[in-house]
Amino acid sequence: MPPKYPSPAQKLRLRQQELREALPFLTPLAHKVARVHGDHEPRLREVRDGLDVLAERLTTHLAREERVLDALALGVAPDSTDAVAMRADHVAMLAVLARIRAAAADFVVPDWACGSYTRLMQGLERLEGHLSQQVDLEDAELSRPTHA
Fold first, then answer.
1. pLDDT higher for 108 or 8?
2. For domain 8-143, which architecture applies?
């Protein structure tokens, strides 16, 4: 029997969980690093602020995505308003991620960085990868002929 591969909806739910787990760790860490090192490296405040915006947008987006995934699981086409909003969310979230990456100097950790700074940069880079994969999966699912 061939191995069973996860469906697109299962992959999306896995990515959702990864994103939901990352934000409660990264957001307070970004605040801490900006507070401790923001005078030395003011761009860390931009990283913190960008992450706050991203967390808010992502929380709203994941709730919308749940409605779409639930519809797909039932074999029903998702509400077109949700689908259009999800695509707009993608554009907005990727733009925020680009601003975070720029403010974080491409997540390069300086020699003087502490462990918290290092973990923040590593976590942000992972978050970017997870979110980019999530967006790709969602766009593919939303572009299927029955969902367009």
1. 108
2. Up-down Bundle (1.20)
